[in-house]
Each structure stands twice: as structure tokens, then as C-alpha cells.
Amino acid sequence: MSFSFPTSHLSFYHFLSFCSRLQLRLAGLPYLLRSLVSGKVPPPDWLRAASSRLLVLAASALCLLVARVKVMGAQLPAFTRFDNPAAAAVTPTRQLTYTYLAAVNAGLLLAPDQLCCDWTMGTVPLVTSIADPRNLSPLLVLAGVGRLLWRALSAADRLSDAIIMSLALLVLPYLPASNLFFPVGFVVAERVLYMPSMGLCLLVAAGFCALLRHGRCRSVLYAALAVLLLTHGLKTYRRNHDWRDEYSIFTAGLRVNRNNAKLYNNVGHALEGQRQFERALKFFQQAVKVQGDDIGAYINVGRTYNSLQMYTEAEEAYMKAKSLLPKAKSGETYEARVAPNHLTVFLNLANLVSRDPARLEEADTLYRQAISMRADYTQAYINRGDVLVRLNRTREAQRTYETALFYDNDNPDIYYNLGIVYLELGRQAQALAYLDKALEFEPDHQQALLNSAAIIQESGAARLRPTARLRLRRLLQLTPAVVGAERVHFNLGMLAMDERDLPAAEAHFRKAVELKPDFRSALFNLALLLSDSGRPLEAAPFLHHLVHHHPDHIKAFILLGDIYVNNMKDLDEAERCYEHILRLDPDHVQGLHNLCVVYVERAELARAEQCLLRAVHLAPHEEYIQRHLRIVRSRRQPAAVAGARQDGVS
Predict the structure, then answer these.
(1) Where does the chain cross the membrane (predicted)?
(2) pLDDT attached to residue 2
(3) In-domain check, residue 139
(4) What average pLDDT does the structure give for the chain?
């Protein structure tokens, strides 16, 4: 809430300007107080004018404060004891540490040498005893500030005005970070010293001018000022290199302090972003050593093990993090006691165990635990819904997604998942409606674009085909493409087939096969298109490629066998195709019938008749099999008569 404090500076400045104009200092304060208390003497005009201005500034500050509270949702952010260990300490450790931290900040202002980007966790050890010698430092700071304030209020000159203004800039901006009004989420934050540094600079300048007026060694003063500017300039130049990127700033922090687990974690995050998982793991493990009860560090270790495909070690790390979560207390809501980012341990662990289909129920239990701790944990609902779909508990998954929608009604992923659930239930109209809703919130939602286009194509709705085509072409324009481009080209090819645009369909199928050489559906549809277009010999290589990668594709063997029979006249290869089909499915009627046709082509009529009799037994109502059986029998009769005559002559 620190942005309301500049109004305090203005208020202090206005009050100071009136006081200095009337030479009001310590000597005049008793008279002013007596006049205000007794009421016999009207307050001076300058006080009425100052009061009106101060009232306007106070009202402005209050409005800013209310706006900030509304932005924060009318509640303070949730901090853990790792963010500010003193806030979780007992009396008097908490108070002693807070006062010592004021001295630490003063030291950073006076000598900004050991700078660190993060001062949380164990960076500053707690002051646990009054006998701790560090307690002397806040007394020294208080004595210094008191001496400066006495000097400012005991004299009426420009130096006093400068001192008061300097103290205002030094003290007032620091108050929100002092833990005086409420605990903050850090131990020391150098950013809160930006405005106090202005006050210190003003104080140094005022002191330097005072020394120049009263001092005799001007050359020494100028030399000291030059050294001060040079050293601070060099420090600034060097510090700029530390801020080059995340890795450099966090490793610079480790040079200053090696007792802060957060720094190790942040270095690990930087390396993780560069996909240097082995190096990142070492820093995460060091964070665990420095702070053995840091839940986030164990989560980081588990996530890195997971990236390294060391799943057993990852599960152990997640289980350790889960065991460190605070236990629920009677009458206290659990979600208020657990940092939201720590709840990811349930999601990460559940995602890990759900890799094993036999442990899906265990994953579901973990998601339900996360939801019980935080009712509006949308991602837990989404992940749980995915697991329920895999468990074939589709209706329960639908209710889970609808509950998530209650807490987050503008999340496109929830609408998308509901669309997939309705698709699983065979309700394509409702599925398309939810996918369209997902695209309203995120027009480039790739999975929604692809699946909605596929639903439109499969529905055969001619009026919606332009919409499907636009969505698929939009997918091809997106970078980077998460959805496989080969699937997009395949669906474009199917749309072109529906519209009888065979050249476009062939081009898209070929592109899909080029992007994914073992794409089952694209290979078969391309071969079928070529065969139906009178180019069966061009279709054959794609069918060979298809059955090489997918030897269980019966339709491919059917089509390939037909090409061998009708176009290549290779009955042996055709026979092998149909026999392979019958090995996959001994009762496959079409494969058996086509094998019978091969026997007929070879003039093996007796064998063909036996084959057709078996086909009739499997499919007694198929008229074309009955017709072919009659043809074979009619051919066998003249052959039998001719054979009998030949036997009689002999």
C-alpha cells in the first residue's frame, strides 16, 4: 500500500512551509498548544490554511488506500513463514527482529555494498534474545535520527528545513515495510529504499554544504565527495551486470548469502527454463539442504526428476512435500493456512501417478484432497475431470467441469473439456456448442478449433463447412503449433472429399503423410482416393507403407488384395493379403469371400465352393455370396460331366 505515502510527503512539505514561514520551532510549540486547548485565542490563519490542504491530501490518500484494498479483493495476501520468518515468531523475537531490520535497512542505505535480490527465509537470522549484540544497531539508528530531529526543530534555518524534509523522505516511505501496521511478505526489500535513498542524498548534500560553510579543509571535503561518487558509480556499473538475466541476478545473490533457499530455487528455475535439468536439480537439492522444511523446494525437486523421467524419485519428493503441509485444525479453514502455490504438490503428484492406468483412482483422491483445501481450485477440477473421463465416469466428469465453471465461467479450457465430455456421450450438438463457447473466450484455442472442425466435418452439415475450413486454416497460421499440423491437413482433406474437390483432398492427404509418415487414416484415405480415381497402382505404395506400420489394418489389406487381383493379376500376393486378414479375424466375411474369388480366378472351383460354403455359414443373408456360390456350382457341373465322359472313353 506504499503508493499512498507520497501524499504524506506533500502533507509534511506543506506543514513545513507554513512552520518555516512563521519561524515555528520547539520554542513556539507550547504557545500554540495552549491557544488550541484553551480556545481563548483563535488559531492562527496559517494553521487554518494548512489544515484545509492537509485535509485534501489526507482524503486523497484515503481514496488511494480504498482503491488498493478493492484491487486486492478486500483481503491481505497470504504469506508463509518463509517469506517473513519474524512475522511467525513469538514475542519478543518478533519485535526484536523487526527493530533490527530497521537498522539493516539503514545500513544498506549508508553502505550499499552487500546487495541481494531476495532477503527472505534465512537471510537475516532472527534476534531471539535481548542480550544479542545486534540490538545495539537499532539504538544507534534511533539516536542518529533523534539527533537530526532535535537539530531541525531547535533552529529556524534552511538547514533545518532540509533535515526535516530528508527525514520525511527517509522514514515515511519505509513505514509500510516496517511491519508496524501489518506483516509484509519479505524480510528486507531493497525496492522500498528507493525513496528513502532520496532523503539520504538530500541529507548528505545538506551536510556537505554545512561543512563547506564552516569547514576549513575544502579540498579534503571535495576529495571525499569524489571518492564517494566514484565508488558508488563503480558499484552501480558492476551491479548492472548482475541484472543481465535471471540466472546472473540470483547467482549474485548467492555470493552475498548462502542461507537463503529461495535463491537456490530461483537459480534452479532459471536453469530449468534453459532445459538444463541436471544443473537445476543440484540447486533445488541444495535448497532442500538449506531449508529442510521448504515445501516449494521439494516440489521443484520432484518436478525436475519428472522432467528427467526419474519418476520414482519424483514421487518420493512430492510425497515429502505433501507430508510437510500443515495439518488441519479444528475450527480453522484449511485453505487459509496453506499457500496456494503449495497446493500444486497434489496436482503434480496426481499427474505423475495417473501415468499408470492402474493408479487413476489414487490420482482422483489427490485431486479431491486439493479441492477440499481450496474450493475454487479450478485446475484441480480440470485435471480431475480428465482422470474421470479415463475412468469412464463421464457423467461425474461432466459434473466436475460444471462445478469448475461455477468458479471460473470465462475459462476456455473448461468449456473445451465439457465439449469433449459431450462428444464422448455422443451428443455432438452440445459438444459443438461448448467448443464454440471456448472459442469465444480464446479464438486461437487450438484443440477447440481442431475438434469443432472435426465435428462439423463428421456431421455432414454443408452450411457449416466454410466455418470448419476457416478454423482449420487458422490452425495452420498459428505459431508455434501445439496441435499436429498433420491432423489439420487430414481434416481439410476430408472436407474437400465431402465437397468432391478431389485434387485438394489429395494434396492435403499427401501433406499429412509427409508430416507424419505412419499416419494411419491419412494413408488409407489417400490410397482409397487414388484407387477410386482410377490410379490403383499409385495407391499400392501407400497401402504397403500403411500395412508395414499398422499390420492390423484390415481395410488396407482388403484394398491391397483387390488391387493385386484386378490390376496386377498377382493372385499369390492377393491370397497372402486375405489369409493375413483371416489370421487377424477368422470370421471376417469380406476377407473370406475375396479369398474365395482368388480360388475362382485360379479355376480351383472345388476349393472355391468349400470356401463359399463357409462364407454362407458366416453370413447366410448376404445375397452376393449366395449368387457367387451358384455361379461356382454351375461352372463345376460341366467340368464334372466332361471328367466323367473322359473316364468312360478310357
Answers:
(1) 54-71, 162-186, 192-212, 219-237
(2) 43
(3) yes
(4) 86
Query: Which spans in 340-481 are helix H?
Result: 344-353, 360-373, 378-390, 394-407, 412-424, 428-441, 446-459, 465-477
126 and 11 within one domain? no
pLDDT band at 594 (very low <50, low <70, confident <90, very high): very high
Q: Which residue has the cell 519485535?
A: 95
What is the biggest distance separating any 2 CA atoms in the chain, rounded to whole angstroms?
Answer: 159
Domain count, the chain: 2
In angstroms, rounded to a whole number, what is the distance separating the alpha carbons of residues 154 and 14?
19
| 603: DSSP letter | T
Give yes or no: residues 123 and 234 share one domain.
Answer: yes
Compute CA 638 distance to the chain's CA centroid, rounded to the nearest angstrom: 79
Q: Are residues 49 and 104 in the same domain?
A: no
Which residue, 218, 242, 266, sits at the end of a domain?
242
Cell of 577: 493379403
Instruction: Kindly state whether residues 120 and 196 are assigned to the same domain.
Output: yes
Across 563-572, b (16+ Cβ under 10 Å) vs e yields bbbeeeeebe
Structure confidence at residue 176 (pLDDT): 83
Position 224, amino acid: A
Query: What DSSP string runs through 242-294?
Result: HTSSHHHHHHHHHHH-SS-HHHHHHHHHHHHHTT-HHHHHHHHHHHHHH-TT-
Host domain of residue 144: 84-242
Q: Residue 262's closest CA among 125, 127, 117?
A: 117
Q: If you write DSSP's letter for every residue of 519-552 in order, what string do you get?
A: -HHHHHHHHHHHHHTT-HHHHHHHHHHHHHH-TT
d(CA 473, CA 475): 5
Cα-based torsion angle of the residue sequence 577, 583, 586, 592 in order, rounded to the nearest 10 degrees: 10
pLDDT tens digits along 112-139: 888 898 888 878 889 999 999 999 999 9
In 3D, which of 575, 581, 585 has the Cα closest to residue 607?
A: 575
Encode 36-70 in three state secondary structure: HHHCCCCCCHHHHHHHHHHHHHHHHHHHHHHHHHH
Task: Report the alpha-carbon angle 208-211-217, nearest 5.
Answer: 110
Digit-coded pLDDT (tens) for 500-541: 999 999 999 999 999 999 999 999 999 999 999 999 999 999
Burial 352-373 (b: 16+ CB within 10 A, else e): bbbeeeebbeebbebbebbbeb
CB distance 272 to 280 below 8 Å: yes
**Average pLDDT rounded to a whole number, residues 483-507:** 93
Separation of alpha carbons 453 and 576, rounded Å: 39
* Look-up of cell digits 469371400: 593
Task: Report the alpha-carbon distance of residue 593 to residue 614 in Å, rounded.
Answer: 9
**Domain final position from 210, 242, 274:** 242
